[in-house]
Records
---
Amino acid sequence: MKRFREVIESGQFAVTVECEPPKGTDLGPTLERAGRLVGRVHGMNVTDNQTAVMRMASWAVCAKLFDLGIDPIFQITCRDRNRLALQSDLLGAHAMGIRNILALRGDNPDVGDHKEAKPVFDLESNQLMEVIRGLNEGHDMAGKPLKGATSWFIGAAAMPEADPVEPQLASVEKKIKAGAKFFQTQAVYSPDRVKEFVKKTSPMGAKILAGIVVIKSAKMAERLNTIPGIKIPPALMEEVKAAGDKAIDVGVDIAARTIKALRHDCAGVHIMAVGMEERIPEILDRAGL
């Protein structure tokens, strides 16, 4: 198994995809979908109670993917754990062979299925990255030495199409100082804006993996357009609406076109197929990957 870190550091075009843990103990369908992508992707993100919906622990699914021959990317949020639990989970996941981490703030509980849950947010994502960097250096957040340091490859999130973009540029610089080695972005639909973002962040040392969310309906496209940092151009919106029942096919085509347009500018792409994982090989083929 080729490690995701090797791909990024060697300058190859990286392909990562997203994996949503099951809401329950049945991992069969999740691993079956993942198995079809062995050898086609360089890393697979496992979400951490995405959209504040309770699911199986990310680290557990990561361990299963590792056994399957896929290099997992452990997503960890600040929402559900204090600094003790965060560090404990990081050490435990590292002991299972997991080496890639995406540090995130996490969605507020009131958007999920346990609205009465109390958010923790003991740390912000930048602070969490600094903690992870400390574990790599051989000490915990309190400065106590570890019996065995970690070797996490640290990632963070970015929004290239945010308007204005200047706060995002400052955020990328701050996250790099905190320890981020790669960035996976919010969904992008305007390659030219992404290319400009890459030009401005490359001198900082940023490795940008453009986020590709596959559109499957006009309703989904309209919903995406309400999310901060995502802007689907009017021409693409019209293309999706005109497709009617075949909007999924158009969404796959848009994804492939976007990847091809960014192939020589970004460090890679992060594909979020949103329940359409079976179309990922087709997207990769049509993008020439």
---
Amino acid sequence: MTLSITLDTTEEDPLFLQIATRVRSAITAGHLLPGARLPSSRALAAQLAIARGTVDAAYALLAGEGAIETRRSAGTIVSGQIGRRIEVAEQSPLEFPSAPAAVCAEPLPFQMGLPALDAFPRKLWSNLTVRAARSMQPADLADVDPAGLPDLRQAVAAYLGVARGIKCKPDQVLITAGYQGAFALVRTVLIRPGDPVWMEDPGYHMTRMALETAGARVVPVRVDAEGLRVAAGINAAPKARLAVVTPTHQCPTGVALSLPRRLELLTWAAEAGSWIVEDDYDSEFRYVGRPLPSLKSLDRGQRVLYAGSFSKVLFPALRLGYLIVPPELQTVFLRASRLLTSGLPMLEQKAVAAFMRNGHFARHIRRMRILYGERRRCLATALQAAFADRVTVELAAGGMHLLARFPGADDDSVLAKRAALAGLATTALSSLTMAHDAGQGLLLGFTNVATADADALVGRLRGALR
């Protein structure tokens, strides 16, 4: 069908928001009934003489509200579940870290933790997957090792020994369903209701929610320019059961845990009989100076559990990660893995093992490090050009996102909501704090922003925040 939509270029609202508003009004007024088919984004863009991406952004906003839905065979149709969801979306826009109402067909610009999917070697990966499938024997179809494919565990142990200075045996490696799978094992084995657990403040919201689900008493520990303030953690909970840290590239501030603080943290854990989870989520990507040693490489007392993920290096849909456990915990963690998952799909593990064994993994990291350094520079330059002295861009030595602060602007959660209405997945820094003020700012992922698109996307951001 066609839509009778007239856009006004003199309006302050961007074009995509005008489209979304007009379609939403037609639905609530009953002019568009449930099941009615909307024109494709290409057709509507041609009708209105605008860019297709503008229509895509409008449709993504409406889909997130539940007003429309996309079906492969039927195209984009008006949802039958609109009413209250539209009303709620208009009155109280979703704010991070709430889960999105719908999964977008395409990743949104500035989304954190998302690698360069456009630069992933899909053809190579397809070939490796086909070879892995053809090599499957009848025994491979019967069951899987709950600890993971032995070849992949061996490859991970070898890689960490070279890249992160971690000396571990393959039987200390557990293959998990990403970082969340690794942390699910940790909380199952080590945490009991009421246990105090240190957590960086600000910190990764999914870790906090996982701890709260386990019934732990989360102890927010302030982060400064040297990372986690260990002395503050000791004062707050000297016998904490666990400390969860991101020492290489603190999430979200980007600072690195200094060597004195690392040694102080390890000493505390050894003396208190506590455990440390090192979430080394994007250590592969460092652009300034030499790579920092992992906390686990300094761990003489075997108190550190090291968690890594293939989601940031390869692609999130793979849902594979790994956990390195101290020898003392191997048996109990293996038992927990058997009870929780009974193992992970064999085919994906075979493909990753081949990707690592044949040298593709190391080469891919080197290529992405160069690419991300360029995308990081271009995004920072575009922000400075668009906002001038109204923005301060903080670039950490590594990682996959940057922090943009807007002195004198509105609350960062308000800015993030405005950006979301423009189809941009920024994250408010304040939404990741618990007890300590880390200031205001927007976190922007740069790894999935092509250099050619940086200026246009920053222009959209500027228009949304105006």
---
Amino acid sequence: MTEGKTKGLQALADKRGVIAALAIDQRSALRKLFAQASGRPAEAIPGDWLVEFKERVSAILTPHASAILLDPEYGFRAARARDSHTGLLLAYEVSGYDKSAPGRLPRTLPGISVEKLKAYGADAVKVLLYYSTRDASAINALKHDWVARIGEECQVADIPFFLEIVAYQEGMGEKGIEFARIKPEVVTRSVEEFCNSRYAVDVLKVGVPVSMEFVESSAVPPSRALYTRAEAIAHFRRASHAATLPFIYLSEGVSNDLFVEALKLAAEANSDFSGVLCGRATWQNGVSIFVQRGPAALEEWLADEGVRNIENVNAHLAAARPWHDRTNGFTRSKG
């Protein structure tokens, strides 16, 4: 852990060393939300809508976040609008994937480099990788090499490297029960793989190791549940034990209440997670407000429900561990 990487991670964490970050680097996913709210095709959504929406979200919610994740395509105004104490992660990957080819292969943004992202003010660089341990070895070899190249680029630039792993399986819907059956294994084995030092990853951003829609609860009867609460906790524990790097949870597009339930399970499992990078669970219900009633109404919604959502997540980070507990970096915190 170099001084530059340590400095970047300190800028992204709170005084305890916990990362309480807001994610709004979505591009294709955000266009889909705008399309649903407006009735327009996703490809017809104006880029200006994305820019303005991100800017308003950043201005109102970053006083409650230790960091914000944005993209260099639509996020620069939002980066400038963030709270002065809020760190900045910038995404390096092209949004989405080529559906005509197998494997959901990743690509970096054309004309962008880690050095450019650092020059733009990033405290860390993030890439998203769709990954399944069950994919063909040739496909995963390409992904392994891609991640390793970015890790090397971040080492040269002396900036933290966040790897977002999105578990999937070709031919399965990520919200379905078939994928829910294999998700614990895919998440845990993916964590094991990318903790390998060849990738030079500093922080893993991962989904929780169960599909929360299938965890037994008052809202999910035993007839529909795939995991009991005890089984879900065991999966959290196994995935945590597989990690030798700091890791944070992403919300995977679930509701705020469901993400909070996941954090409760993580706490019960004594998971060693170092925080969250929470996106749609915080702001997604504001999209229809913005489309139907305009920016002023969005600001009003964000100041009320949006703040309540992010504070609800923050209130469940007491069990999170400082990122530096899993590194040999300095332990000075942002103060």
---
Amino acid sequence: MTKVKVPRYNWAIMPCGVAFGLLLVAFGLTQAAPMEIFRGLAAIIRYEDVLITDYIAVAGAGPAFVNAGLVTLISLAILKLVDDPLNGATVVTIGLMAGFSLFGKNIANIWPIIFGTALYALYRREPLARHVHVALRATALAPVVSFLSAEVGHAAGILMGLLIGCVIPPVAEHAHRLQNGMNLYSLGFACGLVAMMLVPAFKAFGMEPKAALYWSTGGNVKLGIALAVLCLIFLAGGLARGPRRVLKNYWILLRTSGRVPSDYIRTFPPGVVLVNMGVNGLIATGYILLTGGDLNGATIGAIFTVVGFSAYGKHAFNILPVMAGVMLGSLTNHVEFNAPALQLAALFGTTLAPFAGTFGWPFGVLAGLLHSSVVLQAGLPLEGMNLYNNGFSGGLVAIVLYPVIVALVKHRRPTLEAEDLFEMFEQAEPQGPEALPRDTVK
């Protein structure tokens, strides 16, 4: 065991997360009158929330962003309550909760699943902090709660949510091992497996869950400006810590594979991570605008997800090949690359970024090409019940493609892994009032 000194900047995550949640609420409040927001939130809660239910389409931008901000703040409060260590996984969870609260998660349907995981931790006599990220991310199955509440009754929805929260942790642990760190949305695969069990059971009992398509258009200018400003804030905040040094270290980050686990919060100074978040956010937003797509609740949710994972595996060099592969796939799928499903596939498909980072850009293109086909079909049996449909599809691609590449190609591009990065920053001084002491790595 070798001990190295690793700078920790996690002291800033909580206040920045709170500021982000409040910013979402404030933006929502500028988009609608208070009574309209209350009515919109009530409408959001009543919907079944299956994919794709864009809250901007069903309730308007004001209620959608207020809901996103409130869910973000709720998530942060839970993380604080259980004393989460605050790292790259925390930023990922914030991005997921904020993003999917624009299309599928709301202030009502997330609670049964969270409490279900808390019961699991209690039964196992383990601290909830160990499972808190699973509890929050497993709300990908929140549409199951909403669907049963609408079709059968609130009691049925709550009970099913509790059950989901209890079974997801062991399923997620096993599913994670199958994917060899090549699918960043590992929990999406686990949630997809659970949904594959639930949907046939619902149909056997005479219920008919159906995927939906509520998709808003016409908001590109307003929402594009808002996203650009947010990304520029990230960039400015990162570069303010010393442009030359930050950009030098950002170049180092671009050489990492992104393979799970790649916690950039633990291995890079904060300015580097902020720059990565800003660059990736601009790339994702630019892709939607340049391809004639739509900025709405669903695509902004995908952009927030990309930004969140910029602290845990994604960077420009490993996401662009996958996005190019998805666009290339539209030529063979006979589906326009700016169709709703492929807009989301291009952004969420960057869950397979580790293929480009580990094996080189051609394999990233290949992964994106395969994903563009798989994602259009893999979600059909789930009937929109798993919000992380691209995570489920990405898991299928990873499980098949990774062993094939390793067995037949046996090629890996030179990348930097955690040990290399720890060594690079060994001399860096911790910053912030709560910077933690050195970590231990093998």
